[in-house]
Amino acid sequence: MATFLYSIGRFAFRRRRLVALVWVALLAIAGVGAATASTATSNSFSIPGTEAQRAFDLLEERYPGQSADGASARVVFKAPEGEKITAPENAAEVSGIVKELQDGSDQIASVADPFDKKAPAVSQDGTTAYISVTYDVSSFELTEETRDSLKNAGNDAREGGMTVEIGGDALMVMPETGITEVIGVVVAGIVLVITFGSLVAAGLPLITALIGVGIGVSAITALASVMDLGSTTATLAMMIGLAVGIDYALFIVSRYRAELAEGREREEAAGRAVGTAGSAVVFAGLTVVIALAGLTVVNIPILTKMGLAAAGTVVLAVLVAITLIPAFLGFAGERIVSRKDRKARKAAAEQAAATGEVLVGDAPRDNGGTRWSRFVQRRPVMVLLAGVIGLGVIAIPAASLEMGLPDDGAQPTSTSPRKAYDLLSDGFGPGFNGPLVGVVDLKNSDDQDAVLKRITGEIQKNDHVAIVTPPAPNEAGDTATFQVIPKDRPNSTETETLVHDIRDLGDTLKSEDGAEVYVTGATAMNIDFSEKMNDALLPYLALVVGLAFLLLMVVFRSILVPLKAALGFLLSVVAALGAVVAVFQWGWLGGLFGVEQPGPIMSVMPILMVGVVFGLAMDYEVFLVTRMREAYVHGESPSEAITTGFRHGARVVTAAAVIMIAVFAGFIGSSEQMIKMIGFGLAIAVFFDAFVVRMAIVPAVLALLGKRAWWLPRWLDRALPDFDVEGDKLRKKLDGDAAEGGSGKEERETVSV
Fold it and tell me: Which ranges constitute the DSSP H helices of 557-637?
């Protein structure tokens, strides 16, 4: 592996114009594809294998011509204080708006008058009413004229003192991440400047990461319509791709500067940097890809697409790091090193020329990493207990985790959808915003009328039910639908119990009469989604951790080091989940992070955090511990190897973690609750894993284990493939057996980067 990557690094350095041209051409092609691709017209959400999905599919089959993908909206009216919405002047105003909406766009499928006697939509106290609007196309296909017509509906009514708010997905737009995303990239740039002391060295990782992300996100945009990619797919890919792209470039550039400091020529330094640090990048990227691609086992299309798209962006980041980075290093020349270091080297070279001495690499010297590692090794038990107990305390809120999917009730209170949601809840009851759709398959029923009467009668007796609408059969008479309005909030445990009660009733009816009863609708889909996430979490965790454990065994030639890495990850991800619960569910410090309405944690959050954070956590494990392993196999004691690993890696890993935290934290400014929560969760998880687990718990455990940390049974050592991650075979090839001792000495020399 190291020898192969060494050759790639030297080739890219020599043919830098060709390599750069190829990547720029790929970026241009992807950009043109994104610009010319048709807009994604669907943001479909399906959960194969669940009852809610089976009911949804049955509706599409038995009610042809009724599109379930069309956008919808509710225009909600509340009469002025002391008045009724049914008062003649108010009712006339609302009816006028109904006509206005009907004539406002040819994309409208129907507009329901709230005063229609067949289906009234007026609250019992007569103060609130709503107009239901459905469209022939999805929200992404609505024209600006159609959106404007909906937005302007009720302007005259507002001027007359009536409250008018609009909810539903018809006004859905792509989520905004806000200026904090840009701030995240700016922070990354500042950290790189501080780390390298050179604007060229700092700018190189940013430029290459943006090129990789640009190609990845443009490709996703170009394929969005064809592959039905959701709006959050590109956002997650950008989030992950930008973070790992900067980090991977950072590690290779840092190693390149170290090789230069040891006196090597620029092309040779580029080859060795890619051969050594590049090997770690490849394996680190592979762990991230395994974690993201592993989301396919959950068997939920939206998660599968998000995972594969993000994994593809990570692959691009790895390819950019091992090819475009050495090419850009060739363009950068001596400017990749800070002016201060260039002057120091020039002075040393002049002195060596004057005295006839041979110029060698910089002498080893202590830095913050070595001092910290020695502190940890002096007090490993204290550091270990402090880290484990601290993260354990932060993880406590995770025991109270409640999961669900956000609706308009999770929107900021200043938005019209949230105001419409609250008006409907106040006027019609908390469960009105989460109606359940009952679907009855009557094909095998002997007495259809009796069955429908029994179903609605039994459901109405349930303590959690507010209203059951009369069943509406289809034209064929083999299917009927009805609506159940719960008494409680859509995401409450009482509503979840109601869904299961109706399904239990359906099981009884099927055994007695042959009729099948299904429950679907957004609320039922959310409940099924949460349950499926719960069921999939442990198998997914076992698969991802198991595969990564085998991969890390190959990298580190050890059993205990990968085991420690996996256990440390579990500790950090549970602590991060506890922090997410405290902020987004309990509301602690919610105002600081823009959480206006605490509520259940997104069902997708735990499994997504496991997938993403595990891959990123292994990045730091690979980059930090491979330098320890490299030092150990070249003759250093376990204690010296830990110090060497921190001497070379602590500063770079710290910078990488700060950059990744800044990039993820930038998405906290999003207007979309899902993206905000993902950004916060990933940022805090990286903080815990990098600074508590990898920088404190890992050296403490390695200090306690000593040589046992690197133990591997001989039979297993022979069975595992040797990818030469430490570059030992590469070093022998380049320096020869006679120079091996000197090479090992050089590896242990400290370089200021």
Answer: 560-580, 605-633
